[in-house]
Amino acid sequence: MSPRPPVPPFTEETARQKVQAAEDAWNTRDPERVALAYTEDTEWRNRDVFLQGRAQVVEFLRAKWEREVDYRLRKELWAYTGARISVRFEYEWHDVDGAWWRSYGNEQWEFAVDGLMRRRYASINDLRIGPDGLRIPRP
């Protein structure tokens, strides 16, 4: 596969470009397109799910976007150095029963020299929200 610029080592400008590209791709909700940003042997931790390889990523994302309907994501650069970028993010979605959620989290990314993501570790928390966008307290 050809390089996927920008490539490491990252500057603030190129790290921001990488974050924006990831946000744009994930908002397509197209698992195959999203997976092309990762190495064939990519390693993921997403919450309590551990994945290895692009094929597992595609299957994971298909199932995710079947559960998380009308998903809309925002990412923000948190830090960068060399071949690593950290982001914080939030996204909103509703489940198949129509309940709305806002999910918050942090991701740590590590890139190969060709600019493909080799590792993605995500910690995520979900918060139920009402029609006004405010948190619904747990009983």
TrEMBL record:
One Pfam family matching this protein: DUF1348
Classification of source organism: Bacteria, Bacillati, Actinomycetota, Actinomycetes, Micrococcales
Name this protein carries in UniProt: Nuclear transport factor 2 family protein
Stretch list, region Disordered: 1-24
SUPFAM superfamilies linked to this entry: NTF2-like (SSF54427)
Alphabetical list of PANTHER family matching this protein: SLL0781 PROTEIN (PTHR31757)
